[in-house]
Amino acid sequence: MLRFTLFLVLSLYLRSCHSAACEGTECDAQCAAYCYGVLNPCMSNLGSLQRRAEACEAAVSIARIALNDRRLDSFGTSMNLQQERQNTSQLLLAHGTPMARKLDRNDTFQQLGSKYYYIEKEQKLNWHAALEKCHKMGGHLASLQTEEELDGFNNQLNGLNRYWIDVTSQFNEFEFVSVTKGSKANFLSWAEGEPTKDGKCVDVRTFNGKTTMNDNECSAHLFFICEKSIEV
């Protein structure tokens, strides 16, 4: 389109030259040289404008493609969320059956006193990962409320290892809280010399037949104890 416009303008200039007083090949040559000198800068500018226009068209095309990709991603995310919700609903329905509760109780969680616990003895995780793992299992890190509950682990834990529970001082360095209850921990039974304030998360350990609590770095990789309420 731009080239056609230039050709039209050049033709008009040449025609005006022919209509002037001078005639002959010398006059034609002078007119052509004059027209070229006038139009050459315009042609250069128009060429630059054309390249910019083409670049803009390419940018618009890329933007449209990106927008369509985002729409597809959004649609895919929505579908994934719907599928995840459906799967979660199915799991909840399955766990609501007596058979599912029986499998949970017998195959994963064991009863100690009036509560059900899962003691991880193979995989070591930091405190935050252990918290998430217990949630994925449908429970939470063990929330021990009495000396009797703590003593229930005297014969269950390997004395060489430590196990995360739900107590932490990450929110307030001067106060240990139970993340399960969202309030100050009502029961703390520290080992001798503990807490040493060398960490903000709490683990339990059995030593000489007695299970006690210790503060530890939350990033330490330890075993952990999950707790779950199971209806009979």
Structure characterization notes:
The chain is α+β, with helices and mostly antiparallel strands and 232 residues long. It folds into two domains: 2-16 and 26-80; 98-228, Mannose-Binding Protein A, Chain A. It contains five helices and nine strands; from the N terminus they run αααββαβαββββββ. Strands 1, 2, 3, 4, 5, 6, 7, 8 and 9 form a nine-stranded mixed sheet that branches. A hairpin with a 2-residue loop joins strand 7 and strand 8 (210-216). Helix 1 packs antiparallel against helix 2. Mean pLDDT is 75; it is low at 17-21 and 91-106.
CATH topology (level 3) name of the largest domain:
Mannose-Binding Protein A, Chain A
Strand and helix order:
HHHEEHEHEEEEEE
Number of strands: 9
- Using the alpha-carbon principal axes, give the shape: elongated
Q: What class, by secondary structure content?
A: alpha+beta
Helix run count? 5
Binned strand content: 15-25%
CATH class of the largest domain: Alpha Beta
CATH architecture of the largest domain: Roll
Poorly predicted ranges (pLDDT <50, ≥5 residues)? 17-21, 91-106
Q: In angstroms, what separates the terminal alpha carbons?
A: 82 Å
Share in helix: 40-55%
Domain count: the total is: 2
CATH H-tier superfamily of the largest domain: Mannose-Binding Protein A, subunit A
Mean pLDDT level: 75
Rounded radius of gyration (Å): 40 Å
Largest sheet: 9 strands, mixed
